[in-house]
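sry for the spam today, last one i promise. struct tokens for design, 790 residues
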């Protein structure tokens, strides 16, 4: 049957409602999927759903010009049935792409962006093979929008597909105008990154990130402004990162000499996905690593330690080589990776036996290439594991952590001392499945009881039972390793280092910094005493500090010059950051930068606060100061990418004896004073039935501050506000400070954990007028929480 009424242009507006309804159903399914087991309250859930629907509607409107262009040839088909079927197929592709992006987010808990193009076909195949299986709810969220679309178009077909030329024209104009409207992010309404991530439109995120990546590319950036760059050294046009090695031995005071005067062994364990939010004392989600907690109590434990990458791609070069990220990660250079001094090569030059153990295929992210570049003598991975070990039948990644530990222990008495051995685990990765997992699922319930998790929060934990049970399993395998080697003859002379490559994303994150916040544990029988370190350091600082320790305390030598970005571990017991360092979430994301306490991300300035929280700041002078340092790093990185060289000496750099720097703090970063009203410290303490807040406000301006009112807000863990308390109005003189105390009630809703935020507010509207302190935890029954700023 042919049809003559209407034309292709008018038919578009009459068919479009079917796609709009299917889009709404798609978003509703994705949001419901993401909310399963989540701890957000009803208001937060509605806010997430509302913002997600508005974003999806705007994105669909923005797509109208393209959809019209693609659909007009189909809508011009005269025969009705082929026209409807082809239109259904074309529009279904749009829904399927969005559904796949939503499914990726459900698994990874981060939107997919340009990082898709940072991996080879084989690496993508491995990743997808181990992705989480679609659950019935996920299948329904994929199928139902397609059903709605096809039924809608069938109804359109039965109504003869009549439309309006004017309506299509209005749709086109609205679609063009939609590009002038920003997508609402809900930053003021949604309490954390997890909520904003669920609400954001994944197609818009993917498109925007790919556009940003294609636009920025890699190349020499313009030098920073002269005024902002006066403290920055000139870049060597051949080796922009090269410097005299002068890292101070900050670890030496904590170590005793070996009994026989020999050189100590070093074992570094990189735990896949190990995040600080679920491991260690006062972990925000409660600790699910009881063994590592015990080990931390007799170790040097770094509370506020950062991985420099948000995924595994960068961990080996940053941890063992203190190397830059290049364009898509150092190992993405492949055969073009330049030789440079690293922990393995420096110790290998001095007679250490070196070994690297990994249960996966080290061709992924070219880890094998990097280890070979570092001249590792023995490399054991999935392809050379040997007989007698069982591959993980539930994962494409290779051998589970139990088998990996068994393989390492098989060699433990054959390692020739002194040795450097690195072990990289894998089980704390999708699909979070391993043989014998039911035992650990039962232990998860015991752990939840031991942590006294409130009943209202249990569904959120149980929704991630696979992840939490895997964490318990890996922790158990680490216990087995340490228990076994404790009787080895080399144990007494060994330094053990444990850290995470990044924080796994599948357990929802409260803040962006959570992705990088990992533990660092340095344990050894040679330690004089344990210490809990609260200063900020990163994985870039580990190799410089270990080499300084071994050369100063144990008589090894170190390179005279290095291209290392790290300046050594800071051992201060108070919260501070004296480093300047880059961070990169994915292979293709733009580098972020942290200098002193200021964090620059996507052009926005944040203050890194005690407790590893980021508070948005508005100080152009400070932002320019951090931006100049980021630009300095980016420019050095671009020069390096052009020359593909880090040092003229390669991996076998000339070695010299340790020489203490003239000033141990010579490499510390000194930030400019922030303008406006800020806070120097904030502490909360439980007193009777309430919470006492003590805060010190300061004025960084050269003129007296405007009057402000100290405002404290008590909120639940999911961001629901419970109580506000105002103090008396304050006006600070130039350089002035004032301590303020506020008392808040502790309501029944805080049966588990609540948080206090305090900031200077406008006396008229209550809005923040300076930088405050946010997310200070108050535990039920706890005596104190919080801390001082640097």
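last one done:
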């Amino acid at each position: 049957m042919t049809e003559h009424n209407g034309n292709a242009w008018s038919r578009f507006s009459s068919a479009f409602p079917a796609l709009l309804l299917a889009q709404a159903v798609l978003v509703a399914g994705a949001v419901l999927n993401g909310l399963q087991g989540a701890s957000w309250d009803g208001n937060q859930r509605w806010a997430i759903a509302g913002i997600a629907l508005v974003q999806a509607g705007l994105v669909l409107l923005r797509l109208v010009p393209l959809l019209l262009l693609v659909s007009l040839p189909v809508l011009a088909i005269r025969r009705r049935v082929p026209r409807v079927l082809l239109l259904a197929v074309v529009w279904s592709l749009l829904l399927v792409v969005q559904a796949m992006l939503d499914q990726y987010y459900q698994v990874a808990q981060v939107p997919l962006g340009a990082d898709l193009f940072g991996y080879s076909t084989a690496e993508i195949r491995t990743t997808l093979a181990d992705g989480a299986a679609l659950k019935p709810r996920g299948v329904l969220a994929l199928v139902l929008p397609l059903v709605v679309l096809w039924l809608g178009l069938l109804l359109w077909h039965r109504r003869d597909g009549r439309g309006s030329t004017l309506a299509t024209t209005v749709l086109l104009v609205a679609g063009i105008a939609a590009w002038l409207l920003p997508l609402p992010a809900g930053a003021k309404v949604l309490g954390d990154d997890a909520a904003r991530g669920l609400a954001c439109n994944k197609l818009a995120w993917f498109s925007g990130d790919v556009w940003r990546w294609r636009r920025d590319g890699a190349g020499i950036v313009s030098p920073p402004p002269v005024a902002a760059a006066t403290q920055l050294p000139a870049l060597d046009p051949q080796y922009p990162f090269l410097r005299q090695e002068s890292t101070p031995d900050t670890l030496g005071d904590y170590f005793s000499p070996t009994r026989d005067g020999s050189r100590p062994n070093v074992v570094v364990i990189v735990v896949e996905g190990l995040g600080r939010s679920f491991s260690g004392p006062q972990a925000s989600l409660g600790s699910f690593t009881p063994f590592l907690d015990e080990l931390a109590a007799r170790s040097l434990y770094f509370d506020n330690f950062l991985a420099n990458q948000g995924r595994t791609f960068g961990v080996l070069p940053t941890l063992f080589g203190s190397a830059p990220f290049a364009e898509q990660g150092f190992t993405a250079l492949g055969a073009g990776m330049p030789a440079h001094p690293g922990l393995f090569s420096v110790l290998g030059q001095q007679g250490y036996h070196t070994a690297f153990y990994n249960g996966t295929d080290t061709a992924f992210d070219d880890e094998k290439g990097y280890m070979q570049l570092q001249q590792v003598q023995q490399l054991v991975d999935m392809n050379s594991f040997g007989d007698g070990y069982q591959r993980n039948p539930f994962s494409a990644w290779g051998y589970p952590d139990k088998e990996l530990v068994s393989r390492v222990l098989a060699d433990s008495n054959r390692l020739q001392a002194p040795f450097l051995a690195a072990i990289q685990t894998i089980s704390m990765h999708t699909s979070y499945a391993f043989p014998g997992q039911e035992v650990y699922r039962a232990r998860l319930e015991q752990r939840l009881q031991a942590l006294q998790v409130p009943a209202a929060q249990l569904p959120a934990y149980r929704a991630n039972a696979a992840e939490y049970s895997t964490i318990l399993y890996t922790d158990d395998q680490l216990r087995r390793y340490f228990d076994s080697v404790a009787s080895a003859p080399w144990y007494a002379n060994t330094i053990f280092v444990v850290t995470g490559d990044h924080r796994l994303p599948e357990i929802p994150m409260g803040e962006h910094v959570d992705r990088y916040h990992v533990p660092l544990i340095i344990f050894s029988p040679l330690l004089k005493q344990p210490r809990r370190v609260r200063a900020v350091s990163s994985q870039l600082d580990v190799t410089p500090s270990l080499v300084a320790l071994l050369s100063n305390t144990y008589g090894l030598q170190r390179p005279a010059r290095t291209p290392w970005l790290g300046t050594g571990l800071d051992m201060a017991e108070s919260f501070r950051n004296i480093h300047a360092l880059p961070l990169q979430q994915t292979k293709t994301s733009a580098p972020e930068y942290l200098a002193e306490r200021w964090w620059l991300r996507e052009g926005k300035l944040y203050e890194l606060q005690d407790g590893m929280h980021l508070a948005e700041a508005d100080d152009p002078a400070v932002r320019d100061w951090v931006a100049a340092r980021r630009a300095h790093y980016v420019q050095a990185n671009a020069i390096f990418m052009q020359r593909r060289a880090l040092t003229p000496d390669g991996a076998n750099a000339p070695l010299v004896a340790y020489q203490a720097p003239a000033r141990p703090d010579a490499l510390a970063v000194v930030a400019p004073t922030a303008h406006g009203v800020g806070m120097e410290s904030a502490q909360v303490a439980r007193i009777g039935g309430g919470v006492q807040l003590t805060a010190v406000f300061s004025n960084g301006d050269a003129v007296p501050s405007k009057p402000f009112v100290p405002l404290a807000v008590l909120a639940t863990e999911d961001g629901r506000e419970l109580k506000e308390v105002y103090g008396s109005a304050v006006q600070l003189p130039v350089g002035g400070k004032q301590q303020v105390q506020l008392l808040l009630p502790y309501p029944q809703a805080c049966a588990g954990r609540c948080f206090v935020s305090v900031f200077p507010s406008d006396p008229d509207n209550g809005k923040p007028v300076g930088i405050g302190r946010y997310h200070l935890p108050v535990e039920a029954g706890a005596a104190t929480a919080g801390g001082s700023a640097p």
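Confidence is low (pLDDT under 50) at residues 1-5, 218-229, 782-790. ok im logging off now
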